[in-house]
Amino acid sequence: MRCWLIGAILVGSAVASILSVILVFRMTSPPDAMAAVLGGLWIAMPFLAAAGLTALTYRHIAPLVTLLIALLISAAIGLSIYNASATQQEAAQQRVRDAVQPGEAPDSGPAGMRKAGADAGASIGWVFSILLAVVLPPVQLATLVIPTLVAYGVSALLGAREARQVPEHV
Question: From CA 61, how far away is CA 89, in angstroms rounded?
């Protein structure tokens, strides 16, 4: 059972990290390769930590089960938030492209008003997506680390208590 749990955690971590990075890079494009690598590592940080926690707690079933459950919850919520934000950002960019109809002056009149509103909406969405990419990974990390360490501590205490109990001889 332990091998199955470890495999599920590692595969789930890999899939969640790849999908998270893809969704974030759908919202914004990094300016250069180094920013892409650092940004990708930031977004994947909770799932890399899950793999590390797996290596640290592989001897105890309780923290592995807790980590798997926390990983599934954290990844599902994070991916849905990233997907919704990426979809909204793409819709805002489409509104910017559609604001000015052919033959209209983009700087004045109704087309200018539509373009200004669409640009403002896209800018607000972009700021929100960057804020989301900065805040969500540490929250996901906390939702993985805290329950796993609590489960590890409890299982270690129970294991130490069982080891100290001396069986009675009748």
Answer: 41
